[in-house]
Amino acid sequence: MSKDPRKEMIMQKMIERQNEAKVVRKIVLVISIILFIAIFLVAGGGYIYVKSALKAVDPDNKKEIPVEIPIGSSITTISKILEENKVIKNAKIFKLYIKIKNEGDFQAGNYKLTQAMTLPEIIDTLKKGKLVEEVVLKITIPEGKQLVQIADIIAEKTNQKKEDVFKQLNDRAFIKEIMEEYSDILTDEILQKDINYPLEGYLFPATYPFYKENPSTEEIIKSMLDKTREVLNDYTGQMEEKEFTPHKLLTMAALIEEEATKKVDREKIASVFYNRIKAGMPLQTDPTVLYALGEHKERTLYKDLEVDSPYNTYKHKGLPPGPIANAGKMSIEAALNPEETDFLYFLATSNGEVIFTKTLDEHNQEKAKHITNKK
């Protein structure tokens, strides 16, 4: 009995397909096993790595490592500092651990930590502020203070003569020395011939802790410049976008600081200044006149507006040569993010209200209502 060729061909193809299916299943199985092993190894390796990073760097090493946490340090900065000092194994995992545990409120200062400390022990130390030394002196510099006032505060806190402190703050050799260390914020702009005092506006308003009774003026100033640098670093991108140097930013921020009465006014005040500059108008802000006079007065008189000084924004258009006081973060942010308005004038009333107007007529009407004429 002869075989049907077509049936044989069909049977042959079926056998071939079954063999191919077996091969495919084997390949899929092998690949699946390989992937599973790879995933397991990666996951296992990751788990082991994270678990290791959460442990002390060296449980047997109790040698003290000095670690400084600067004022205003972010969690990211603190994590990097701890990793750089080899107190923790991984900054990113430490930062993640802090977020998961909802920890924070770390205290600035100088610490002595060890590689034997666990993460909870390190966190507890930084939260409680268990410092190498106790804070024995605090110097608070309020917002809007001028260099002469800051010198007075430093002198009072450190039992020095006001004249001696102020002299050092303006000593050319001292200025050039610290300019080298803080070249990113202290540029040649502070040495322009029209600048009254090079460090005016650069000593950030904050409370500064010190761990000895009589820190030198240099140590105090460097602490303040560290803070200024830290604050300005947060705005590097915006400064580049607006083509602001630190000097220009601090100069504008100081004007806003001196004119502002509350937070909500600052962005509008900034808009007035920018609008006037754009329109080619002088800023005409009284604090610059008083700064030029070197006086603190309740009222600016008409005769005061005639003072011959590059800081007098009634006589000279644009920004003054430099800051006229120190500015806080709110004023710095307002200088970088002014409100969009058409205002060209503003008027601060005796009750602290600020009235904004678009025209000189409107401004004069409000002035007649709220302000006694200057004499």
Beta-strand level of the residues, as a percent range? 5-15%
Low-confidence stretches: none
Query: Which overall shape is indicated by the principal axes computed on the Cα atoms?
Result: flat
Query: Between the first and last Cα atoms, what is the distance in angstroms?
Result: 134 Å
* Helix content class: 40-55%
Biggest sheet: strands, sense, closure?
Answer: 2 strands, antiparallel
SS content category = mainly alpha
- The residue-averaged pLDDT reads 86
User: Helix-strand pattern, N to C?
Assistant: HEHHEHEHHHEHHHHHHEEH
In the residues, how many domains can be counted? 3
Radius of gyration equals 33 Å
Please provide the count of β strands.
6
Strand order of the largest sheet: 1-2
The number of distinct helices, counting runs of at least 4 residues, comes to 14
Features of this protein?
14 helices, 375 residues, two-stranded antiparallel sheet, Dna Ligase, domain 1, 3 domains, mainly alpha, 7% strand
Task: Characterize the structure shown.
With 375 residues, the protein is mainly alpha-helical. The protein has 3 domains: 64 residues, 2-Layer Sandwich (Dna Ligase, domain 1); 97 residues, no CATH class; 117 residues, no CATH class. It contains 14 helices and 6 strands. The strands form 3 sheets. Strands 1-2 form a two-stranded antiparallel sheet. Helix 2 crosses helix 3 and helix 10 packs across helix 13. The chain is flat, with a radius of gyration of 33 Å. The mean pLDDT is 86.
